[in-house]
Design brief:
This protein is of the alpha/beta class and 432 residues long. The protein has two domains: 113 residues, Urease, subunit C, domain 1; 289 residues, TIM Barrel (Alpha-Beta Barrel). Helix 2 packs parallel to helix 3 and helix 2 crosses helix 15. GO terms for molecular function: 5'-deoxyadenosine deaminase activity; 5'-methylthioadenosine deaminase activity; adenosine deaminase activity; metal ion binding; S-adenosylhomocysteine deaminase activity. It comes from Methanosarcina vacuolata Z-761. It catalyses: S-methyl-5'-thioadenosine + H2O + H(+) = S-methyl-5'-thioinosine + NH4(+); S-adenosyl-L-homocysteine + H2O + H(+) = S-inosyl-L-homocysteine + NH4(+); 5'-deoxyadenosine + H2O + H(+) = 5'-deoxyinosine + NH4(+); adenosine + H2O + H(+) = inosine + NH4(+). One of its GO terms (biological process) is S-adenosylmethionine biosynthetic process. Homotetramer.
Length: 432
């Protein structure tokens, strides 16, 4: 007997070898997909009728800072330096472990509701984010942010904490949590420190999550300090590889892209954050042409201001069309791959497509909505018309986290009320 059967669905597998089923069934047992077909002879404890809906792989957010939901709308429409130095950094300095837990719970709630089943997160007090992931049922790749700032003592302390976190939480929450090392960026960490991080990651078999060339300021600072850009510095110290997840990658040269492709580096494209902070436009089409695995991330809510990957997909598709003056740039199917298959590859998880034997991370998107009618092309609708709020059911690791728009793993009202109270108290401390 199976655990879950999802039936009467348009099954969008994202499996290039299988294609889609217009009226199909997905069977789940012991956290994995055991059958995909038109019908099944199996019975199950839970049967979900997905009529008028699309069943698809859960979306993967490859770069965010979950606890920054507490800063949603706190400081908008400001110059980057003022935004960071005058508002975000002073507020972050006042954060407590409990604040991070409450903010992370809110982020998990938002992601469950909008169809994200896995995410990569870099912040501090990361034990609290891990606890939120554990409670919510989501899948996550987590790392403690390491900001050495050319201070050897601080670097040693940060690296020790990063290592402790990597070892404490790897494989936790029934295997839903993976851990990584999280050096902040090449312009906030010395090359010697980055080399040490690489050594520790190799020793622990852990991946590395880093911000890379988000701004022109980073590019100029690196050239002034080292006489080369961030990518070439990382290449020279042997830092880059297929276990590296690089967020942003806006200010890349053609040579940088060649290196990223050659080394198998995974890139997280944070299109809305980059637009909101006026950081620039990442050369996504060039990266894809060179075989770089490009996925999608939202960044934190302070610079987005939500965690809706459907919105991220649409924005990416539209921006790169107008930026290249090419209406066929980043077509819907390719953007969906970035939000599913590519994201799963970047995090090294057996998700991102619906295939027998893979982990059962999937969502049910309700297509019986005015803005989704009529439907001629499902991928097109999912990218250009659908919203996170159209997700009616979310399943991770074979467990239903949201059923028919009701979140089952968290108390939604309590999470929102506590996050609101926490955010207000935090701002009061900042302004005291």
């Amino acid at each position: 007997m199976a655990d879950i059967i999802v039936k009467n669905a348009y099954v969008m597998t994202m499996d290039p070898d299988a294609g889609d089923l217009k009226n199909g069934t997905v069977v789940i047992e012991d956290g994995k997909i055991t059958e995909i077909g038109e019908k099944t002879s199996e019975s199950a404890d839970t049967v979900i009728d997905a009529k008028h809906s699309v069943v698809m792989p859960g979306l993967v957010n490859t770069h965010t800072h979950a606890a920054m939901t507490l800063f949603r709308g706190y400081a908008d429409d400001l110059q980057l330096a003022d935004w960071l130095e005058g508002h975000i950094w002073p507020a972050e300095a006042k954060l407590t472990a409990d604040d991070v837990y409450k903010g992370s719970l809110l982020a998990c709630m938002e992601m469950i509701r909008s169809g994200t089943t896995s995410f990569a997160d870099m912040y501090f007090y990361m034990d609290e984010t891990a606890k939120a992931v554990e409670a919510s049922g989501l899948r996550a790749s987590l790392c403690h942010g390491l900001i050495e700032l050319w201070n050897e003592e601080k670097g040693a302390t940060d690296l020790k904490e990063g290592k402790r976190f990597v070892r404490a939480w790897q494989g936790a929450a029934d295997g839903r949590i993976k851990t990584m090392y999280g050096p902040h960026a090449p312009n906030t960490c010395s090359d010697e420190f980055l080399a040490k991080v690489r050594e520790e990651a190799n020793r622990d078999g852990a991946g590395i999550h880093i911000h890379l060339l988000e701004t022109e300021a980073e590019l100029l600072a690196m050239k002034e300090k080292y006489g080369k850009c961030s990518v070439h510095l990382l290449e020279d110290i042997g830092f880059l590889g297929p276990d590296v997840l690089a967020a942003h990658c806006v200010w890349l040269s053609d040579g940088d892209i060649e290196i990223l492709g050659k080394r198998g580096v995974n890139v997280s494209h944070n299109v809305i954050s980059n637009m909101k902070l006026a950081s620039g436009i990442a050369p996504v089409h060039k990266m894809l042409e060179k075989g770089v695995n490009v996925s999608l991330g939202t960044d934190g809510c302070a610079s987005n201001n939500n965690l809706d990957l459907f919105e991220e997909m649409k924005t990416a598709a539209l921006l790169h069309k107008v930026n290249t003056f090419n209406p066929i740039a980043l077509p819907a199917q390719q953007v969906l791959q970035m939000g599913t298959i590519n994201g799963a590859k970047a995090l090294g998880t057996e998700t991102g497509m619906l295939k027998v034997g893979m982990k059962a991370d999937l969502i049910v998107v309700d297509m019986k909505k005015p803005h989704l009618t009529p439907c001629f092309d499902v991928p097109s609708h999912l990218v250009y018309s659908a919203k996170g709020s159209d997700v009616r059911t979310t399943i991770v690791n074979g467990k239903v986290l949201m059923d028919d728009y009701k979140v089952l793993t968290l108390d939604e009202q309590k999470v929102m009320e506590e996050a609101q109270k926490t955010a207000e108290e935090l701002v009061a401390r900042v302004n005291a």
